[in-house]
Design goal:
By secondary structure, this protein is mainly α. It is built from six helices and no strands.
Length: 157
Amino acid sequence: MKPLALLLAVCLAFALVTPAAAQQPVPPTPSPDQVNAIAKNLYCPVCANVPLDACGTAACVQWRDQIADLLMQGYTEAEIYEYFVARFGPSVLPTPPAQGLFWAFYLLPPIAIFAAGWWLYRTMVTRPMQAAAQSKSPKPAGKYARQMEEELKARDQ
């Protein structure tokens, strides 16, 4: 009877241990705050200029669910952005990436501001100074102008 009881005890132990060992660890479910932190930096594909976290369309709900799934799979925030850019293009980002032709968006504004400042400086400061310097020392145009200057000098003395 003892071998039968021992066999039954071993079988019962295996029956209890096997289901627990067969379960895989469940990845943590991302919180809505984690999903929205990423979704606020993506734009809705349907609505123009609406962040994904503030949009209520069915597409945005699916995107937020997709973000949660990607977080559960272990994707980082940067990898999730790359995933959506690869699928939908750079228009889903709030700012264009600083690569390729998009460099113009970053370079043109400072160049335009510098050019406008240079033009204003030339117009407002340099030209009036040149005009004032030219008007201070006019040269007599002929014998009548010299005669008039002499008369004015004689009268002032």
